[in-house]
TrEMBL record:
Name under which the protein is recorded: Carboxypeptidase S1-like B
Annotated SUPFAM superfamilies: alpha/beta-Hydrolases (SSF53474)
UniProt-listed PANTHER family: CARBOXYPEPTIDASE (PTHR11802:SF64), SERINE PROTEASE FAMILY S10 SERINE CARBOXYPEPTIDASE (PTHR11802)
Family: Belongs to the peptidase S10 family.
InterPro entries hit by this protein: AB_hydrolase_fold, Peptidase_S10
Biased composition (Low complexity): 545-556
UniProt xrefs under Pfam families: Peptidase_S10
Signal peptide positions (record): 1-19
Keyword Glycoprotein: yes
Tree of life domain: Eukaryota
Keyword list, A-Z: Carboxypeptidase, Glycoprotein, Hydrolase, Protease, Signal
CC per GO annotation: fungal-type vacuole
Region (Disordered): 545-575
Amino acid sequence: MRSYFLSGIAILATKGVSAQFVSPPTDLKTAKGYLDLPVRYKQVPEGICELTPGVKSYSGYVDIEQDQHSFFWFFEARNGNPKDAPLTVWINGGPGSSSMLGLFQENGPCRLDADGNPYSNPYAWNNVSNMIFIDQPTQTGFSYSKAISGYTTAAGSIVQLPNATCPDYAENCATYSAPIFADTANSTAAAAPAMWKTLQGFMGAFPQYSRKEFAFATESFGGHYGPIFNEYIKTQNEKIRHGELHGAHHIDLKTVLIGNGWYDPLIQYAAFYNFSLENTYDLKFFNDSIQTMMYQNMYGTGNCYDQTVNCYKNGIDDACAAADSFCYDTVEAVLDRYTGRDEYDIREFSTDANPDPFPPTFFEAYLNTPKVQQAIGAFVNFTGATTVGTAFAATGDDDREDGTIEALSKLVEQGVYVIMYFGDADYICNWIGGEVVAEKVNAPDYCNAGYVNITTSDDIVHGQVKQAGHFAFARIYESGHEVPFYQPVIALEMFERALQGRDIATGKHSVWRSGYKTVGSVKSTYREGNGTVQFEPVDASATYNTTTNQPNPVVNGTASGQEKKREVLFRPNRK
Ligand SMILES: *[C@@H]1O[C@H](CO)[C@@H](O)[C@H](O)[C@H]1NC(C)=O
Ligand SMILES: *[C@@H]1O[C@H](CO)[C@@H](O)[C@H](O)[C@H]1NC(C)=O
Ligand SMILES: *[C@@H]1O[C@H](CO)[C@@H](O)[C@H](O)[C@H]1NC(C)=O
Ligand SMILES: *[C@@H]1O[C@H](CO)[C@@H](O)[C@H](O)[C@H]1NC(C)=O
Ligand SMILES: *[C@@H]1O[C@H](CO)[C@@H](O)[C@H](O)[C@H]1NC(C)=O
Ligand SMILES: *[C@@H]1O[C@H](CO)[C@@H](O)[C@H](O)[C@H]1NC(C)=O
Ligand SMILES: *[C@@H]1O[C@H](CO)[C@@H](O)[C@H](O)[C@H]1NC(C)=O
Ligand SMILES: *[C@@H]1O[C@H](CO)[C@@H](O)[C@H](O)[C@H]1NC(C)=O
Ligand SMILES: *[C@@H]1O[C@H](CO)[C@@H](O)[C@H](O)[C@H]1NC(C)=O
Ligand SMILES: *[C@@H]1O[C@H](CO)[C@@H](O)[C@H](O)[C@H]1NC(C)=O
């Protein structure tokens, strides 16, 4: 099984009191979404994350089922009239990874400093679009089934308490979503309707922000979510067109962006081996015997490749789940085990004792303060509950291809602008595998395109793109898994070009012009070398510098700076 870490939450509150639990909000407004879906929401006060005066923000829940409450947090576009701006949804992966990661670590309106104070992110994606962040499927992040008082066992399972009093023996007392498997999804396909309903709810309650085109942006396990959810949206649109879905809203899907996606395990498990042999940071991870072992674990008879083929063929839950565990333990995790390097950014180390401090996790504590919980109308704590991950693990969804590549081909065929981008220092969903996936999408004329530099307003080359018409594959240099954190300038400009239907390389050409394609090299050959690679664990108090592409030097870094804010609640695999 994939590992989920629910680690060392600093217990700040005293035991035997009820202060550790969330007081249910009493000030939510109600509205009706499309399909008459109930929506409960509030306007988030200025200063909670969005600091730009006059830019409105709303958060709340779409009640998609009796016991499925889907959390959203919406931000108006900062520039221009938000009523004329496109609407973009952002979801993180996991499965079970909260979109609060994307919001606070990547492309949301704010970041948090070590003292828990928000500061504005000038490269927020709501500079150019209305943005909605959704926690899905239910029981991810702030989305909940039933809100219960509980605590967690050492193994991470949630135990319900009879009342909101934290007994002395209990660890991590908090308000949790009751871990009910029937009230979440256990596969990508099963999660699609819930996501669609959440959008129907929001769009009906906030029609003023849903007047223009719709874009879908996601990451990591979003390599599954993005293609499948959007094919579902397209199918629903067709049903609406044929008068089969009364009260539902046509979603005008124009753009799909997927960062460091996990699409096809057969390709991408193999890509761990290829990446370890040859990467552009001049890192040789293993000696020959480990390298041989990894190859054997991948391709030896009955090993990862064979097991995954078997999963693809027979689709049996147990076979897929077992294959995924095997591939994870014997292929993917070899890096962690023998090098201690961070799967999300190979330039740095990450171990239990010394986790990679980037991107910072200060937002987890912020989201667990009464002030912020009240401001956003949360019903549950922000915790590392693993219900969703466990549910998906049981079907082995991570080891399935799920039709993701075919769905992408279809989206392209249906006129959706599809952009796959990859931070090239990421290992877990690395660009070596991504490049092979992109070829398999087989977009018209893509095989005749070549790599060109991407130009941005800062005149620094942050990556290359290979594009034909409205399909693009971008490699981003000096970036770990979460591209908007490591490379905010190109992330925002790429996003804006995508929304405008312009080419990723320059932003000057319409991708709808017939015959547009990039003319360049067959391979993307730029090498960073080891200039930004760290050979010591980074001090936990360090800050990341997006100009030098490495940590700022720590002046007299001490252990005291370290302990302070390492409250890693949740570290799902494909976040
Ligand atoms: C984003 O929008 C804000 C508010 O208009 C502006 O201050 C900031 O400069 C913009 N950022 C970029 C990168 O253009
Ligand atoms: C809450 O539950 C505990 C058992 O965990 C019990 O001892 C206590 O009396 C209950 N408190 C209230 C106010 O019901
Ligand atoms: C890995 O490298 C081998 C040998 O060059 C190649 O045949 C294969 O397609 C590569 N696979 C991936 C996923 O990069
Ligand atoms: C290769 O590395 C492994 C793990 O670090 C070590 O146990 C083994 O002795 C090394 N083998 C050789 C031949 O150096
Ligand atoms: C849960 O939220 C409450 C209320 O804001 C807070 O006091 C408590 O520390 C939170 N619990 C955790 C584990 O973060
Ligand atoms: C997945 O969910 C479906 C629908 O709730 C259920 O029928 C099925 O048994 C679940 N699969 C596993 C492996 O738990
Ligand atoms: C592309 O960018 C690289 C730096 O990454 C530069 O050396 C090269 O000259 C650029 N190529 C073109 C055609 O501008
Ligand atoms: C970094 O790369 C250079 C050039 O490839 C090499 O000489 C040097 O040994 C490398 N440094 C480390 C610490 O591996
Ligand atoms: C990043 O590094 C550059 C070059 O060393 C320096 O001028 C700049 O102040 C640093 N930025 C931050 C935010 O520390
Ligand atoms: C850093 O440590 C050195 C040596 O202990 C000391 O002389 C210096 O004053 C310290 N600097 C700061 C900024 O604390």
